[in-house]
Amino acid sequence: MFDKTVYTERRLKLRKKIRSGLILIPGNTESPMNYPNNTYRFRQDSNFLYFFGIDQPNMAGVIDIEDGKDCIYGNDVDIDDIIWMGPQPTVSEQAAQVGVLCTHPMKELASTLQRAIKNGRKIHFLPPYRAENVVMLEQLLGISTQMVKKYASVELIKAVVALRSVKEDVEIVEIDKACDIGYLMHTTAMKMAKVGATELQIAGAIEGIALSYGHMPSFPIILSQNGETLHNHDHSQMLKEGRLMLTDAGAETVTHYASDFTRTSPVGGVFTQKQREIYNIVLNANNTAIGLAKPDVTNLSLHLAAARAIAEGLKGLGIMKGDVDEAVANGAHALFMPHGLGHMMGMDVHDMEDLGENHVGYDDEISRSNQFGTANLRLGRRLQKGFVLTVEPGIYFIPALIEKWKSEKINTSFINFDKLEDYKTFGGIRLEDDILITNNGSRILGSKRVPITVDEVEETMRG
Ligand code: GLY
Ligand code: MN
After folding, report:
1. CA dihedral 228, 234, 237, 243 (to 10 degrees)
2. Residue 262 CA: which ligand 1 atom is closest?
3. What average pLDDT does the segment 112-137 reach?
4. Ligand 1 close to Cβ of residue 433 (< 6 A)
5. Three-class secondary structure assignment of 145-169
């Protein structure tokens, strides 16, 4: 938890952006895995954490614009809770730590909201993503579960996105810590990528690092020799000579700030010539995009610069052909990189995605492309100082997609399909770093960059 002034300031800034009414920010509840008392690891809602800071279930924050009060609703523990969980601070003690002096038992939330509704006041809330909170909002506000998301306040969404997009110095300190845990996870994965090891052992070991140094992984670990499957959570294979292991993983600190890195390592420790060629194209795309990142450039332009670097490199290998700019304008590179260059990162690994990707990544100036591949870019708008984002180009050889494009004759003037026959079992390479936009450029987050050049990766793997 940060100093209480951090939360007080944030709530003050939020108040200034909302014209009138009540802002309701529910926290999360415990979520059962297989029976009520056996719950998933508790993860507080990031918006509640941002404005109210308390990392405990069953609370809600209310910011009343007109009367100027911030209140936290929640119940103190009873003797049964104390027997099982030990003594706990009261709600008012916890609230005081985040600068909130008004607290009420949870049961009073309904009457507060009903009174406001009767008086014709607007209740602003964010789109809920957990069933428990959808049901709670239905009960509190009388909006049917199917309609709850539709009634989310766009005014509040925009205000929260504006605040959370620009990271404070205290947040950057935490993200740097998350990146340092990520460094350890990735260098451990590299060292373990030996012939005969299993993906499961490595995924388990690096998940353990995230758990032992922080809260948990920032998302389910992606680790596979089939890196051409973008989000591959299957860890069932044994590592084989000649294959690549793609690891996309990050940590969440105890204060819930994320890291998100991807590295691709040659099983056994040495890249083949063919792997090295594709690897260096991806690395060049990554470095090109990071080199261009600064305030006022659009992330869409960075995405397209990475796409050009990929098309240029693949043309050099005879896999693509024709004019590179035209190929990218026609989306031909997306056969190899069907995803976007990156996303915002903060308390959520895809920061604020619960608020709607377009609200976070696009604006009146830059709207989402509808071209295959670029349509998946989560962040297109102009970058600002204080933004934290990922840069994660990749090249994948996805047999089903290659077959589809070949049979439907898509972008045949830019793709050499015959040459692709040699790459059908290649897999995929993605290289992802996390960057902070600074005054006139960017900084790679974490105290050291995770090994990324061919030499650095091979050296790390040698141990
Ligand atoms: N690292 C997973 C993702 O960005 O989707
Ligand atoms: Mn990512």
Report:
1. 20
2. 1
3. 97
4. no
5. CCCCHHHCCHHHHHHHHHHHHCCCH
Decide: 112 and 62 in contact? Cβ < 8 Å: yes
Is 402 a residue whose pLDDT tops 90? yes
Q: Is 248 in the pocket of ligand 1 (CB under 6 A)?
A: yes
Q: Is the CB of 180 under 6 A from ligand 1?
A: no
Confidence (pLDDT) at 65 = 98
Computed over every residue of the chain, the mean pLDDT equals 98
Q: Does pLDDT of 326 surpass 90?
A: yes
Q: Specify the pairing of strand 216-217 against strand 251-252.
A: antiparallel
Residues 395, 400, 402, 408, CA torsion sign: negative
Verify whether ligand 1 is closer than 6 Å to residue 348 (CB atom). Answer: no
Any ligand 1 atom below 6 A from CB of 260: yes
Ordered by where they begin, the domains of the chain are 4-165 (3.40.350.10), 169-462 (3.90.230.10)
Report the pLDDT value the prediction gives residue 368, as an integer from 0 to 100.
98
pLDDT at 184 over 90: yes
**Given the CA of residue 249, which atom of ligand 1 is nearest to it?**
1
Q: What is the mean pLDDT of residues 178-202?
A: 98
Sign for the CA dihedral angle at 248, 253, 255, 261 comes to negative
* Residue 463 pLDDT > 90: no
DSSP single-letter state for residue 353 = G
Query: 436 C-alpha vs ligand 2 centroid, how far in Å?
Result: 14
Determine the average pLDDT of the residues in 385-395: 98
Please choose from 206, 219, 379, 430 the residue to mutate so as to test ligand 1's pocket, defined by most ligand atoms within 8 A of CB.
Answer: 219
CB 433 within 8 A of CB 411: no
What pLDDT, on the 0 to 100 scale, is given for residue 105?
98
Q: How confident is the model at residue 256 (pLDDT cuts 50, 70, 90)?
A: very high
Locate the ligand 1 atom nearest the alpha carbon of residue 349 and give its number: 4
Q: Pick the atom of ligand 1 nearest to 350's CA.
A: 4
Protein residue whose Cα sits closest to atom 2 of ligand 1: 248
How many CB atoms are located within 10 Å of the residue 19 CB?
A: 9
